[in-house]
Amino acid sequence: MYRSEVFLRQIEPRTGRTTQQVVNYVLWPIAVMTVINRVVVKAVNGSITDDFRPVYNAALAFWNGREVYTADFNTVDPHYLYPPSGSLLMAPLAILDPERSRWLFIGANAIAILVALYLLLRLFDLTISSIAAPILVLAAFSSETVTNTLVFTNINGIVLLSEMAFLLLLMRRKDLWAGASIGITLAVKPTLAPLLLLPLVRGQWKVFVTALGIPFILTVVAVPLSADPMAFVERTVPYLLESRDYFNSSIVGNGAYFGLPDWLVLTLRAVFAAMVLISLWLLYRYYRNDDLFFLTTTTGVIMTASFLLPSLGQMYYSMMLFPLLMSVILKNSVMRNWPAWLAVYGCMTFDDWWSFRWPAFGRAAEYMKSTLGWSLLLIVIFCVLGYRYLVARREGRLDRGIDPAYLLDPPVDAVPPASKAEPAVKD
C-alpha cells in the first residue's frame, strides 16, 4: 500500500496553489497545442494563397544564374518582390526540393516568432514563468497575423524577430547591433524602415551605420551575381508604388475596391496623417524620456500608419503591433480601454465574416475589418494622448508631463495651486 502511494505521488500532476500557477497550468497546454496545430497542421496543409512558391522559384533562378524578375503583374497571384539583396539571402532555399524547403521555412518562421515573443517578454522585464508568457503565446498563435504568416509561408515571422531585437537593443543602447538586426530584413523588404525614425529622434546615430550598411553591402554583392538586377528597378519598383484593389487593406486599396471617389480617399488619408503627426509630436514632447512607453507606443503608431496610409497594407502585417499590445501592462498605457481592443480584434481576428444570409454585409465586413481596426487604433491613441494633453494644460501641469493625475508622484491633488498657496510670513 505504501509503495503504491509513493508511485501515485510521483505521477500526480502538480496542483496550482496560487493564481499564477493556476493560470500557467491552464494556459500552457492550450498554448502549446495551438502552436503545434498552426505549424504542423494548418501551415503544412497550406492555402490557395502561396507566398512561398514565387520566393522559391526566384531563389532557384538566382542560384542557377537565370532571370528572377519575370512575374506577370496582371495576375492576382503572389509575386516575387524582393530586391537583389533579398534574392541573395533567399538563394539557399533552392538547395532543397520545394516541399522540404517550404517546411524548413515554416519551421524557421515559427521559431522566429517564438523567440520574438520571448524578447518581447524581456523588453518588459518578464520571464517565461510569468502568466504573461502563455497568454502571449496563445493570443499570438490564435491571431490571423501569425496563423496566415505560417499558412501562406512568408517571411514576416523573421521580420517580427528583427523588430523585437531592434527595440530591445535600441532601449539598451547597443546601437550597432540594433542597426544590424533591422538591416538584415531591410535587405529583403522595407517593412521596418519607418522604425528608423526612433533612433533618429533619440540621437542614436550609430544605428544607421549597420542598418543601412548591411543592405548596401548585400546589394553590392548581389548585383553582379544577378542575371537581371535592373529589372527590379524598371519593373518591380513601379509595381510596388502602385495601389491595387485586391488583397489590400490600406485606405487606398479599400477605396479602389469599393469605388470610393478620389477626393474622399485623399481626405481620409490626410485626416489620419494629421492624427499620426500630432500623436507622434505628443509622444516625443512628453514621453521621450520614458523609454519603454515611448518605444512601444511610437512603434505602434508608426507601423499602423505604414499599413493604413501608403499604397499597400495587408492584415498579417499587424504582427508588428505586438509591442504596442503588450504595453497594456504599463500603468500609463494608451491600450487600457475597450475601443483599443475592439480595434485589435478588427486587425488581428481569425474570425471569418462571410455571410450567406447577408452577403453584402459579410463581404464588406470581411474586406473592411483590418482597415477599420487600424483606423480605430490610430483614433484611440490620438484621442487618449490628446485628452491627456488638454487636461494637463487645463490643470497647469504640463511641466510634469501629460500622464493622468493619479499616476503622478505626488498626485496632483496633493499639490496646492499656486493661487491658493499661503503667502510667506515676514519677520
Protein topology:
Elements: H1 2-11, H2 19-45, H3 52-63, H4 84-90, H5 98-123, H6 132-142, H7 144-152, H8 156-171, H9 175-186, H10 197-202, H11 206-225, H12 229-241, H13 251-258, H14 262-287, H15 291-308, H16 322-326, H17 338-348, H18 359-394
Helix pairs in contact: 2-5, 2-6, 2-7, 4-11, 5-6, 5-7, 5-8, 8-9, 9-11, 14-15, 14-18, 15-18, 17-18
Estimate the helix proportion, in percent. 55-70%
Number of helices: 18
Gyration radius, in Å: 25 Å
- Give the beta-strand count: 0
SSE class: mainly alpha
Shape: globular
Can you walk through the features of this model?
- With 427 residues, this protein is an all-alpha fold.
- It folds into two domains: 10-241, no CATH class; 243-403, no CATH class.
- 64% of the residues lie in helices and 0% in strands.
- The chain contains 18 helices and no strands.
- Helix 2 (19-45) packs parallel to helix 7 and helix 8 (156-171) packs antiparallel against helix 9.
- The longest helix has 36 residues, at 359-394.
- The chain is globular and about 70 Å long.
- The N and C termini lie far apart (90 Å).
